[in-house]
Amino acid sequence: MESNPVLLESKSSPINLLNEMQQLRLLGHLCDVTVSVEYQGVRAEFPAHKAVLAATSKFFKEVFLNEKPVDGPRSNVFLNEVQVADFASFLEFVYTARVEVEEDRVQRMLEIAEKLKCLDLSETCFQLKKQMLESVLLELQNFSESQNSEEESAAQPSVAPAAEAERDPLASPASRPGRGASPEGPAAKSKEK
Asked: Which domains, from first to last, does the chain contain?
């Protein structure tokens, strides 16, 4: 008697794996690469795991697959013109699938994602920029609509002058002398006939 195959799938395993890799990185355990970044004289070194970097960045994958074996257990990668804070955020993202940055750094994170060929971070930044733009456009639209409604209400004549004109026919502009009507008004025309 044959048994039907069943699927054993963990929803928490990917998150647990990332969390454990992040802890190993933060403690410096099993790290086999050091990434040195430098920008305008500010330099920092970041221990990391080749497998994680290669799996998340085509740039690092190309570097590691093309490197020649070295004598030591750890290799080094040098990145110029990458800000320390941006690379630290990049590492946090690739090890945790999330990172918190200031709004004004989103563009820089998109640029580092493109430089390091990290599709997940690039898509995440692009989506966030799109949401931010839509939010600004919605605010502008709401502001424009409120301005238009204020202008329309200011442009509409008030009810009081129109009511006065109905009560006093001589106060209406058409019945005043010099406005195209005779001084005698409508009664004078009927006498002419």
From this structure: 12-100 (3.30.710.10)
Long-range contacts at 46-54 (CB < 8 A, ≥ 24 apart): 46/87, 46/88, 46/91, 48/91, 49/21, 49/24, 49/25, 50/75, 52/21, 52/25, 52/94, 52/95, 53/94
Summarize pLDDT for 58-84 with one digit per residue, the tens: 999 999 999 877 656 678 999 998 999
Contact 34, 70 (CB under 8 A): no
pLDDT above 60: residue 49: yes
Backbone angle region of 33, left / alpha / beta, with phi > 0 → left and psi within -120 to 50 → alpha: beta
Q: Distances from the Cα of 49 to the Cαs of 75, 81, 111, in angstroms? A: 10, 22, 22
Q: pTM for this one?
A: 0.68
